[in-house]
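INFO  loader      accepted 1 record
INFO  loader      residues=90
INFO  predictor   begin
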Amino acid sequence: MAYQFEFIRDTRSSDKPLKQIDIDHKKLLKAVRNLPVKLSFGTIGQYSFDQGKIISFRRTYIIEKSTRKITWENVFGIINAIYTPVYDRC
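INFO  predictor   done
INFO  writer      dumping tokens
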């Protein structure tokens, strides 16, 4: 079983949302580096809202456990310490 989630940052909550996405990404890679999980991710997407007044950046991830030695609760806790996304089974 795997879960998909996104890190989302936009100009409403950050002066530099693209930089924040990159910082969060690096923190996530470091946090899961030694865990028995497989992390896949795509490129950063950019979206505009409210006639271009709000710019949003998103990066989608898929995470899979490779063993039962770690629980999903543990995995989610590590991710949530960086950013609290919505998780979807995939």
